[in-house]
Amino acid sequence: MELYDVAVIGGGNAAMCAAIAAHEDGASVIVLERAPKEHRGGNSAFTGGAFRIAYRGIDDLLTLVPDLHPDEIENSDFGTYTEDQFFEEVVAMSGYRADADVLETVVSQSLPTMQWMREHGVRFVPIYGRQSFKVDGKQKFWGGLTVEVSGGGLGLMERLYARSEQLGIDVRYEARATGLDREADYWTIESEAEKVKQSIRAKSVILATGGYHANVLWRSKYLGPNWDLAKVRGSRYNTGDGISLALDAGATPHGNWTGCHAVFYDLNAPPFGDINLLNQQKNYFTLGVVVNADGKRFVDEGLDFRNYTYSAMGARVLAQPGAVAWQIFDAKSVDLLPDEYRVKHATRITAASIEELAAKLDGINQKAFLQTIQEYNRSIDASVPFNPAVKDGRGTAGLSIPKSNWANAIDTGPFVAYAVTCGITCTFAGVKVNTQGQVLDDSDQALPGLYAAGEMVGGLYYVKYAGGVGLTAGSVLGRISGKHAAALAAGTV
Fold it and tell me: Which sign does the torsion angle of CA 485, 96, 314, 85 carry?
């Protein structure tokens, strides 16, 4: 039987940060990744790579992006995003239910952790294409997000795996953990690597296998009716394995078991995330309007920055007739849309007139749709200037469902529609941890040598999710758990 100081179960951002941190502190480390090598990286590989971090200004950002050109600094308004802002926004979006001590740790360690990641080869860049608009000659960032990883989530995972290979960390693919038992001072992990069963002993185990978003049975059980119909935006391998292992080992279930992050997703996307067909999400509905098959709007598209509302849109569209909707834009707004709207595989419908567009929307009530657009156009207060970088207050009046900000008339051809449905990204439930990433039992006592990080940690998100928090929380708690597990193996804690 093989013996390691630390065994990491999972292969995404949180898992690899944990493995690198544990190795860095002297531990012998093995990583068991359920997916084959070509599909490694978990949900992290499917993300845009945005990190939500607390920073005081350009000097902090330069520690992450030291190669910023002077012209970029001069022509960009990076602003600030304080620890208080970060904490208050996320805790408010949880309905003030989030574990405050764990969230405070994520917030306070966000910048130091990103700096640590940069030391290990992760390259950060400003999110010019997705999180800034040019206002008065300067790129102004909005919604609390300023930096992303070069190459997105896939680039993030390529760099973390490259670093793990440089360090000589033992990574095994197609290695699904099927059992976890505590014996004396060790955990025994039963797994099947490349169809060969094996037993591994470790002083500490870090579980980072994600939530249960790809488990159709659990989705139906916990999220409710029709959630078995949702497309899976990310990894098909996140089926709740780590949660089950932890619960069987004595962990307490924690978090929002009926909550999830789900977005507007291309109607004709494959049922599971495909690393070769990224950008299936359609998250810039704030710049247009969204209608269902009845031809009616059903959300306030301008309620807030998309970073604070997009993760609830999957549930909204899933509740519409046929679980389908269309995002509608005209020539004034289409040039503001980011790359996810320009990929060849997008279900895009174009027309020279709004009447022609209506005729092309398969299954929609054309008469009601045209009436919806007319009423929307008439309701806009055009005296308020349009500014996509702030909540501009340019809204509608007299509609049963308002558009609170960024309301522009849909009246200038060519017109374009994108057909969307529900794409689930991750679930909000998991196990309870403390600020060291240790898994807790129902008495809030740490289970010896057992840690969790990433999306299987419950207690951070309830109902709503702020964009970019997931990667940050995964990195922070991954790094912390890796360091603590290494110290436990060395006998220094």
Answer: negative
